[in-house]
Write a structure and sequence with these properties.
Elements lengths: L1 H10 L2 E4 L21 E5 L5 E5 L6 E5 L1 H12 L9
Antiparallel strand pairs: 1-4, 2-3, 3-4
């Protein structure tokens, strides 16, 4: 059980405050809601990808590796998350 907990903790994305990421270019989907209900992504100098809530631009960002983002995009393109959209 303890081993499983350590493995789960290691799998959690890193979290960083957006002010500490430096100058990065944030972007969001052209299909985003005009009310700001969207996420924004930025490629970091390390090649990792930061993801933040557009309603909290100074809040925390989750940091993912390129492999993690690639796996997510493949799943999204395959429709694996279609049930999450209303």
């Amino acid at each position: 059980m303890e081993h499983d907990l350590r493995r789960a903790e290691a799998a959690v994305a890193a979290v960083a405050h957006t002010d500490r990421l430096g100058p990065v270019s944030w972007r969001k989907s052209a299909a985003s809601n005009p009310n700001g209900d969207c996420v924004e992504l930025a490629v970091l100098p390390s090649g990792e990808v930061a993801v933040r809530n557009s309603r909290a631009p100074r809040g925390p960002a989750l940091i993912y590796t390129p492999a993690e983002i690639a796996a997510f995009v493949r799943g999204a393109k395959a429709g694996e998350f279609d049930d999450l959209a209303w």
